[in-house]
Amino acid sequence: MDDSSRKEPFRYVMNQPIECWLEVPAGNSGPGAGKLTEGVLLDLSRSGCKVRTSLNLRFTSGDTKLIIHFRLTDVNLQFEGSVRWGWMFGIGQFQYGVRLVLNEEEEELLLRELELWTNTRKAQ
Fold first, then answer.
1. Are 66 and 22 in contact (CB under 8 A)?
2. C-alpha–C-alpha distance, residues 67 and 81, integer Å
3. Phi, psi torsion values for 36, nearest 5 degrees
4. Is-contact 94 64, C-beta < 8 A?
């Protein structure tokens, strides 16, 4: 038996992007600090996600912190992370890769929600 068999995908790709809200913590300086900005979640894993938004963070890799708010099922989720990369995506749109910083409880919650979300998508 191979113990290294992967039981879950690396990344869950949202065929229909999921609405999310991005928050730059209020203690930070720069655009969007302390405010919620609308965006879409394009993919998600337990270590990070890809989002698209109108918010131009003008970030330095790894230094820009974000709080991402979204719902996969009936639970409002909110996770902290840091921007790893970003680029302009069309006119007035920006795409970012975010590394999530999760404690054990948050990681279990995210995995549970991803499993429920996946199961409801299969049933449709």
1. yes
2. 6
3. -95, 135
4. no
Please enumerate in sequence order all residues whose Cβ is within 8 A of that of 27, keeping only pairs 6 or more positions apart, or say none: 33
The tokens describing 118, both together, are 């996946």
The residue with tokens 């979204």 is 70
Residue 81, beta-bridge partner list: 66, 100
- Please tell me the pTM assigned to this model: 0.83
The one-letter amino acid code at 87 reads: W
For residues 25 and 98, give the distance between their C-alpha atoms in angstroms, rounded to a whole number: 15
pLDDT in tens, 39-90: 999 999 989 999 999 988 876 555 788 999 999 999 999 999 999 999 998 8
Least confident of 15-24, 44-53, 66-75, 114-123: 114-123
Six token digits for residue 57: 């963070």
List phi, psi (to 5°) of 104: -60, -40
Distance CA 88, CA 95 (A): 6
